[in-house]
Each structure stands twice: as C-alpha cells, then as structure tokens.
From TrEMBL:
Tagged with keyword Transit peptide: no
Signal peptide region: none
Keyword tags: Oxidoreductase
CDD domains (UniProt xref): AR_SDR_e
GO molecular function, one term: oxidoreductase activity, acting on the CH-OH group of donors, NAD or NADP as acceptor
Species whose genome carries this gene: Penicillium cinerascens
Protein name: NAD-dependent epimerase/dehydratase domain-containing protein
Domain NAD-dependent epimerase/dehydratase: 4-257
Length: 334
C-alpha cells in the first residue's frame, strides 16, 4: 500500500486531509504535538484499522532534527504532506518567534526526508496566498507566477511578519530542491482565506482557524452594530484545499508546481447575506441589512486554471461553504 506522512495532523486543513487520504486508500501517519491530540484523531475514526491510521509525536517543528525520527518508517513513506506550521500567540521577536520557525520547520522536514526517507517521491507543502500577494501594488491578474515582494527588513513590522514568514518558508523549500537535488520533487498549495466546516473533535470555539473566526464573530453578534472590513477578498473551502493536497500526490504532473487554489471573490456583506438566507434564526445577531458592500468594482483578476486543469478541482460554491461552516460552528456551541 501507498504510505503517507501528514505533518500537523490536528490542524484545520490537515483534519480534512486525513479523511480524504483514508477515503483514497492511503496508509496514513500523522504528526501531532501531543499524545492527547493523536488519540483524538484515532477516536474520531473508530472504524479505521490500526495499520491504516496512526500518529507520531513531534513536539516542536522548529527544533533542529524535529522530524528525523518521524520520517523513518517500515514500510517506508512514499509521500509527505507538510501542513504543520509554528503555532503561538505573542510575537515579541519577529525573527525568533515567527520567521525562523516557519523557515526551519519547512527546511527541517525536507532535510530529514533527504537523510532518512530516500523512498519519498514527492512532498506537498501548505503555503499560502500570502506568498503570492503584493499588498502595495496588486497586479492585473494573480497567478502562481506572482511572489510577494516583501523584504526581510519589512518583515520586522508585526503587520507584515505572517505574510513574510509564508513567503520565505516557501522560497526556502524551492531553493532546497534546487541546491540539494533530493530524490523527491515538491508541490505547494497556496490558498487565500480558508472557510468550511470545522472538525468537531479538534476544535473549540476559541481555537478555530483565523478565517472561520470571522463567521463565528458574525453569528455571535460581534458585528451587529457595524460590519468589519473584508480585508482579503479571496476565499476557498477547506474541503477543496484538502483535496488539492491529496491530488498533488496522485497526479504525476503536479510535481514542481505551485497551485493557487481559490474559488473566487467574496465580501463580508456577501457572507452575511448568505447567513441571513440560510439561517434566518440568526437574524437578531447579524449586521444591518443595508450594510455597504466593500468589494471593489475594479478588483484584480485571478487565474486558478492550473488547479482546475492539473488537479481537477471543482470548487464548492460560496453559499454551500458558508452554510456548512455555520452549521458546524452551531454544532460546537457558537
């Protein structure tokens, strides 16, 4: 059987990837930060045989040699999906707290695979639209050709550090393949805001992913008086992002490619209008009906054709994604 290592197994996107890997017949090993998180994943898949799903503990992905033991396996791994990224709340030192862990977490696993898992054929890395976007000067059309031009100096500004960390980590991965010439190739998945159902066994309402927090805030009445600005106007459903990761190991042509995975545009006003339509019982918590729509008329274009043609993605509609997300948030007590 084909065997896959999935890092960051308790993350929002990774939890959906686990389901798709198992559906597609892969033997799956996930890395988690604690025994408790690993057990929760196994408990959520009670009908899955032990040899099909297991976990290993990697406490800190940024430490030197963090993945050395995790990548060793008998039978060996065929593929690695790297979704793990450093997780913390307070950035006091942008380099120590954010940039180093993001870059070292990515290069660390590539080094470990090269040294200890020579049978691995491909590594798929979760990157981000943050590594593509140019907030100061949007191009006419965004595609995989674009790179965020952020500099190391600009990354010292806390408002830039997240986007910079994703950019530098992805660049480090491509540089590693170019200079180290390992046995494997890589592919990267670059989503914008990721909406979609939360996986109940891993999430509390305080620990949901950043994109879904805005939905939680809306249905809890936190924008009742005034709708917050949308910010980034691009979105994708988590189930499509998860499928993109799995397709990227199944489709030979995906090697050596970046994939800009986005379903299109949205605004917070569009989001609220759908909640109003699909969950009328939440009306009293929602912002005013006449809230302005801040989606620009002359917004940049997007080219997601590579994700359609190579990975064969068919994106969820915004209505379906929002409705399913709200259902899942209400189910965990929102």
């Amino acid at each position: 059987m084909v065997k896959v290592l999935l890092t960051g197994g308790s993350g929002f996107i990774a939890a959906h990837i686990v389901d798709i890997l198992l559906q597609h017949g892969f033997d799956t090993v996930v890395t988690v930060r604690s025994d408790d998180k690993g057990k929760k994943i196994l408990e959520a898949h009670p009908d899955t045989p032990k040899h099909k799903l297991s976990y290993v503990i990697v406490k800190d992905v940024a430490q030197d040699g963090a993945f050395d033991e995790a990548v060793k396996s008998n039978p060996p791994f065929d593929y690695v999906l790297h979704t793990a990224s450093p997780f913390h709340f307070n950035v006091e030192d942008p380099v120590k707290d954010f940039l180093d862990p993001a870059i070292k977490g990515t290069t660390g696993i590539l080094k470990a695979i090269k040294a200890y898992a020579p049978e691995v054929k491909r590594v798929v890395i979760t990157s981000s639209f943050a590594a593509i976007v140019n907030g100061n000067q949007h191009p006419k059309v965004y595609s995989e050709e674009n790179w965020n031009p952020v500099t190391w100096e600009e990354a010292m500004d806390p408002s830039n550090v997240y986007r910079a960390s994703k950019t530098f980590a992805e660049k480090a991965a491509w540089d590693f393949v170019k200079t180290e010439k390992p046995n494997f190739d890589i592919a990267t998945i670059n989503p914008p805001l990721v909406f979609g159902p939360v996986v109940h066994y891993l999430n509390s309402l305080d620990a949901i992913n950043t994109s879904n927090q805005r939905m939680r805030n809306i249905i809890q009445g936190q924008m009742k008086e005034k709708l917050a600005p949308t910010g980034v106007f691009l979105w994708v459903d988590v189930r499509d992002v998860a499928l993109a990761h799995v397709k990227a190991i199944e489709v030979p042509e995906a090697g050596g490619q970046r994939f800009f995975v986005t379903a299109g545009y949205f605004s917070n006003k569009d989001l609220v209008d759908i909640v109003r339509e699909t969950h009328p019982e939440l009306e009293s918590k929602l912002p005013p009906k006449d809230s302005p729509n801040d989606l620009p008329e002359n917004i940049y274009g997007i080219d997601n054709s590579k994700s359609l043609q190579i990975l064969g993605l068919k994106y969820h509609s915004f209505k379906e994604s929002v409705s399913d997300t709200i259902d899942s948030l209400l189910a965990v007590g929102a």
